[in-house]
Amino acid sequence: MSDVPFIRPSKNSIIIPVDSFQKLINFFNTGENPAHRWSSKGEWKAVYYLSDKQINEQLAAKACEKVLDRQWVSSNNEKILLENFLSKLPTTRTDQNSKEIILPTCNKLISHEWFLKSYSYSERLTNFKRLCESLKGTL
Length: 139
Known about the structure:
single chain; alpha+beta; two-stranded antiparallel ribbon; 6 helices; globular
């Protein structure tokens, strides 16, 4: 779920985009996620409610910003945030292959429903979108 924006209205509740619902179910069934993997499930259960909710664009923007905080890339044998990597591209020499590997992640993030609805409410998201578009222009 690292690449899914979510809003946490209360302690044991999250609101996610409808297109991420199956991913959430898979996560709770398997425990598989890029950030970790459960060794045992434990004594708990998850309950799902599927309903359309109107999401405040500013809350969606904050959720998308948190997704950016969880997007890492490897560069010169160190992990850096994708956003920082993109901001350094104009001043550093980066091989074409690295750019081609990162582009699908960028496209996925900036084409997400919540991102498209909310990026204009966040200077950070607007800048990230601009960086992704400039990456496309270098390929």
